[in-house]
């Protein structure tokens, strides 16, 4: 496991299934409709049970959740207090400022987690599955957004974990954390 400290908070990279890793907040890679789906979204609803979708049905905004936004629900049977359902962008070749939307999905999730009093937050690699965002680019956006949040709000969170599903994702995030760490002293 790779670990890095930013403003007194830990960023950890690990391989695994995010539904099995305890955290105060688990972040989901959702769609704007907040209706569930495959990938990590499917895994979270399966492991968390029906209460999460019932709550989404109550709180779902009329026009859905915009790309780059997020909503919070309880965590049902997951080893967490809350799930943040974040909506990352679909990769369209980088022509539509997908990087800003991806950064916004991470930033909004961190703001919501801190507002709920979370100390630990775990993320999957948002947008790099069905939404086809290139892994290496996504890893830089994810890690630099988390590091900027931790620096701007020291003490707001104690730990941010990235729970990566396969070796390719783990390697991409390790490489990005390595580069960011060398560039800035800390990412
Ligand atoms: N734990 C951690 N990571 C996982 C898990 C898991 N259990 N399962 C898959 N991943 P994706 P997206 C990884 O497709 O690209 C859904 O249908 C996966 O290997 O889940 O943001 C939603 O409903 C990949 O690296 O999310 C949306 O419609 C990463 O999670 C759409 O897909 C993200 O892949 C969102 O697409």
Q: Which terms would index this structure?
A:
alpha/beta, 187 residues, 7 strands, Leucine Aminopeptidase, subunit E, domain 1, binds ligand AR6, seven-stranded mixed beta sheet, single chain, 5 helices, 39% helix, globular
Structure description:
With 187 residues, the protein is an alpha/beta fold. It has one domain: 3-Layer(aba) Sandwich (Leucine Aminopeptidase, subunit E, domain 1). The protein is built from 5 helices and 7 strands; from the N terminus they run βββααββαβαβα. The chain has a 7-stranded mixed β-sheet, with helices on both faces. Strand 1 and strand 2 form a beta hairpin. Helix 3 packs across helix 4 (135-152) and helix 4 packs across helix 5 (167-184). The two termini are 17 Å apart. The relative contact order is 0.22. The mean pLDDT is 96. The structure holds ligand AR6. Ligand AR6 is lined by residues 17-19, 29-31, 36-41, 43, 88, 124-131, 163, 165-166, 169.
Structure summary:
This protein has 187 residues and is an alpha/beta fold. It has helices spanning 39-48, 51-59, 98-115, 135-152, 167-184; strands spanning 2-6, 9-15, 25-30, 70-74, 82-87, 120-123, 159-164.
């Amino acid at each position: 496991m790779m670990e890095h400290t930013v403003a007194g908070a830990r960023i950890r990279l690990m391989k695994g299934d995010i539904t099995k890793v305890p955290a105060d907040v688990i972040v989901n890679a959702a769609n704007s409709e907040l209706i569930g789906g495959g990938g990590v979204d499917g895994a979270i609803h399966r492991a968390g049970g029906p209460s999460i979708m019932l709550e989404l049905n109550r709180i779902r905004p009329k026009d859905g959740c915009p790309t780059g936004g997020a909503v919070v629900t309880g965590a049902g049977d997951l080893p967490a207090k809350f799930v943040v359902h974040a909506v990352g962008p679909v990769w369209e070749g980088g022509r539509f400022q997908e990087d800003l939307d991806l950064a916004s999905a991470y930033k909004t999730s961190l703001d919501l987690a801190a507002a709920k009093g979370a100390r630990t937050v775990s993320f999957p690699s948002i947008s790099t599955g069905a939404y086809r965002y290139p892994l290496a680019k996504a890893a830089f956006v994810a890690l630099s957004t988390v590091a900027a949040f931790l620096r701007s709000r020291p003490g707001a969170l104690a730990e941010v974990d990235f729970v990566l599903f396969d070796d390719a994702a783990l390697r991409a995030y390790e490489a990005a954390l390595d580069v960011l760490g060398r560039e800035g002293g800390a990412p």
